[in-house]
């Protein structure tokens, strides 16, 4: 079975903007700024044999504040910049109570089925508690980048930088391969 790295889009692959103490999701390609610090992370993890799968909640689609054309342009920019295998999107609002909106694990489950993944040997990289909860629900290891959105719930690791996250994942992968 394959292993994957599930990467939260906003705050990891693109630079976050903050509005009223919370992260604001970009709604246009002009607002969408790729995080250059994520390139070495993605390259190292791809070279280590992981599938790289982006997961993102995009309720602006259902609200009508984000057009599909703008979202597709943002994701095309991500695909040009990073060696991604897939980008999975939940278009729902929290009030829709769907199974794909994080912290629910639906996007991870979809990817596991599609790519025949070993979730217990896969990782989730994010800066938000919602991704850590989805990871825990399915047995993935959560690797959170220190941020105001980490929360107080369960998370496996909270690290200060993307290079530290890459190093920890590669260290844990080496242990798993030796076991």
Task: Provide structural commentary.
Helix content is 36%, strand content 20%. It has 179 residues and is an alpha/beta fold. The chain has a single domain (8-178), classed as Rossmann fold, CATH 3.40.50. The mean pLDDT is 94.
Question: CATH top level?
Answer: Alpha Beta
Secondary-structure arrangement, i.e. CATH architecture: 3-Layer(aba) Sandwich
Residue share in β-strands: 15-25%
Provide the CATH topology: Rossmann fold
What is the overall shape?
globular
Rg, please?
Answer: 15 Å
Instruction: Please count the beta strands (DSSP E, at least 2 residues each).
Output: 8
The separation of the N and C termini measures 16 Å
- CATH homologous superfamily title: HAD superfamily/HAD-like
Helix content: 25-40%
Structural class: alpha/beta
Runs in which pLDDT lies below 50 for 5 or more consecutive residues are none
In terms of quaternary structure, the protein is single chain
Total of helices: 6
Overall pLDDT level: 94
Give the SSE map:
Elements: E1 4-8, E2 17-19, E3 22-24, H1 38-47, E4 51-57, H2 60-63, H3 68-81, E5 86-90, H4 106-115, E6 123-126, H5 129-138, E7 141-145, E8 157-159, H6 162-178
């Amino acid at each position: 079975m394959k292993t994957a790295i599930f990467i939260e889009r906003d705050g990891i692959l693109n630079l976050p903007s903050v509005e009223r103490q919370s992260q604001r999701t970009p709604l246009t390609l002009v607002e969408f700024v790729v995080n250059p610090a994520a390139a070495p992370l993605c390259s190292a993890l791809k070279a280590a044999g992981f599938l790289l799968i982006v997961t993102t909640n995009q309720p602006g689609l259902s609200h009508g504040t984000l057009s599909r054309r703008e979202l597709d342009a943002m994701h095309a920019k991500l695909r040009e910049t990073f060696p991604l295998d897939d980008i999975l999107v939940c278009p729902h609002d929290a009030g829709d109570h769907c199974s794909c909106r994080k912290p629910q694990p639906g996007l991870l489950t979809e990817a596991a089925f599609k790519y025949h993944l070993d979730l217990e040997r896969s990782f989730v990289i994010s800066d938000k508690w919602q991704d850590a909860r989805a990871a825990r629900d399915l047995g993935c290891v959560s690797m959170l980048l220190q941020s105001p959105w980490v929360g107080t719930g369960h998370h496996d690791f909270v690290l200060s930088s993307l290079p530290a996250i890459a190093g920890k994942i590669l260290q844990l992968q080496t242990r798993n391969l030796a076991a």
